[in-house]
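Below is how a single chain appears once it has passed through the pipeline. First comes the sequence as given, then the structure the pipeline wrote out for it. We keep one example in the README because the format questions we get most often are answered faster by looking than by reading.
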Amino acid sequence: SKGFPDSALAKQSELIDAMWLWSDRGARPIVMDLGSCTAFITQGLADLDPVRREQLQKIKILDSSVFAESLLPKLTLKRRKGIVAIHSVCSNQKFGWGDSMLKVAGACAEKVLQPHEGKCCGMGGDRGFELPGLVQSATKDVGPAMQNSQCTEGYTNARSCSLSLATGTGKSWRSLFHLLKDCTD
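Resulting structure:
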């Protein structure tokens, strides 16, 4: 809310209204490729009015890593990558969604490196934009770990974490869906 709780509640209400339409009133799931937002929407919207709270309960909201794992049995993997790094974002760790990311990466790569497992990338939402020293400090060991493992690419489920990790390592960090696409095309 950045100190503006009324504005935050108004935006949350707008989001639930849009998700209600996008999901065809709860008939279709919503997949979110930003773990912290998935966690916030599924766990943290206590101030909604009763109608929107009921709508939210009827909408199936999936974290992208959980959804990606559910796709594995339906996909034909045509190739595997050598070594890839993954970063399970803070909310994935808290809610147990990190295993899904590990399973997807394991299906798509010969070796999965978790150079930053259990740690924050330093972005903290948008905090890393304001305090770049957080990102530098938080990611200082990730680049060398990737270099030592000859790993050239990483995957996560938060664009802000991708930016932080790419800045800190000088390597490409993308959505887990890019890994699936690269291995199924």
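The beta strands are 30-32, 61-63, 81-87, 109-113, 153-156, 172-175.

See the next section for the split statistics.
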